[in-house]
User: Which sequence fits this backbone?
């Protein structure tokens, strides 16, 4: 396996046909590292960050690609992580299979002089390489959707009251107020819908907090490029919920293979009495159930009450730290294991304090960490 490294200025030299083929065949789909998304990110976002795109080749076939960012460079110790900019909601590397990951990881660590490599993956199972020192834990689980189900099957996970209130709200908005829902896929329609999204966003809490896209020109240019390039490859969709006089909610979705990634959502706070954000999510669920997609990722942080209530499935977010083969890296690995052991034991002790009736033998087993389920699950 041959590794080739590209700087920001050189990423345009990566063969796009090989990149597209890898994206279609990758064991974990990730639109944020496909060419139509990663190239605009490298062009517009975090320009001060030292980012290198790692590619792995088997003969003439591209079998792995991911951006690498050096976080800390010391004479005897270097820490890097798979690059995650603020608009990146999935950092799983584009890899043909986990066997390929196990082979290329030690090469990357050795060739780049990396002692610790930090990675976050969104998958059914974490990327655990063979014959490499690593520390992996499940950080949290965020809402996901089985898009192969019908909308009534999705609703079945809701309470009876939620189903009743949701249907009443939809009937009121569409029958009495003549609302309209649209899923836009062409480049021109998506660009126009994106302008509507920005107008709603800047007038809401994101505008007041200073996080709206129009207040950050570089981020705005990144999204414009993603929508332009992604729409040309049928990778971008924009949803609008409108009343006759104005748009009251908008969302942005990225699509790759058979997966959807719900990236952005905003609603008009002047119409809060209609719950436009909740209504748009329900309409998006119905549209996804009628599409050819198999699943959807909410791309949210832990604690999003709306999506956690509406979307019944969960996808695990794994944090992994991979260590090199040198003495200092092995020492760091042992220190990490010691720290994890004492942290978990403290958690177990606190948990036992609230369960005074726990059998002594079970308490000892829990305190020693001898449990079938890891403490972080």
Assistant:
């Amino acid at each position: 396996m041959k590794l080739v490294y590209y700087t920001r200025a050189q990423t345009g030299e990566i063969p796009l046909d090989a990149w597209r083929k890898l994206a279609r065949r990758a064991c974990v789909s990730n639109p944020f590292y496909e060419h139509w998304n990663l190239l605009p990110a490298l062009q517009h976002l975090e320009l001060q960050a030292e980012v290198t795109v790692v590619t792995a080749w088997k003969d003439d076939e591209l079998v792995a690609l991911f951006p690498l960012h050096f976080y800390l460079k010391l004479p005897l110790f270097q820490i890097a992580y798979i690059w995650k900019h603020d608009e990146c909601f999935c950092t799983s590397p584009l890899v043909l299979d986990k066997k390929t990951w196990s082979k290329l990881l030690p090469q990357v660590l050795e060739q780049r002089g990396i002692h610790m490599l930090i990675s976050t993956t969104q998958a059914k199972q974490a990327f655990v390489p063979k014959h490499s020192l690593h520390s992996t834990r499940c950080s949290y689980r965020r809402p996901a959707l089985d898009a192969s189900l019908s909308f009534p099957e999705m609703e079945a996970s809701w309470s009876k009251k939620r189903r009743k209130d949701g249907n009443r709200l939809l009937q009121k908005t569409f029958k009495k107020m003549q609302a309209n829902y649209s899923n836009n896929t062409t480049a021109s329609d998506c660009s126009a819908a994106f302008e509507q999204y920005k107008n709603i966003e800047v007038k809401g809490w994101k505008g007041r907090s200073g996080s709206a896209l129009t207040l950050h020109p570089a981020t705005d240019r990144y999204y414009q490029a993603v929508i332009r390039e992604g729409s040309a490859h049928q990778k971008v969709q924009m949803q609008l919920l409108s009343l006759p006089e104005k748009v009251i909610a908008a969302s942005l979705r990225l699509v790759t293979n058979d997966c959807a990634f719900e990236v952005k959502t905003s609603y008009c706070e002047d119409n809060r009495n209609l719950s436009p954000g909740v209504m748009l999510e329900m309409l998006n669920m119905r549209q996804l159930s009628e599409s050819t997609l198999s699943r959807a990722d909410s791309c949210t942080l832990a604690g999003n009450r709306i999506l956690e209530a509406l979307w019944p499935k969960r996808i695990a977010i794994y944090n992994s730290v991979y260590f090199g083969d040198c003495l200092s890296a092995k020492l760091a690995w042992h220190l990490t294991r010691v720290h994890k052991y004492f942290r978990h034991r403290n958690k177990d002790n606190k948990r036992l304090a609230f369960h005074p009736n726990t059998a002594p033998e079970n308490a000892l087993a829990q305190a020693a960490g001898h449990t079938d389920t890891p403490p972080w699950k």
User: Anything to note?
Assistant: The radius of gyration is 23 Å. Residues 354-377 have pLDDT under 50 and may be disordered. Residues 327-353 form the longest helix (27 residues). The CA atoms of residues 8 and 72 lie 19 Å apart.
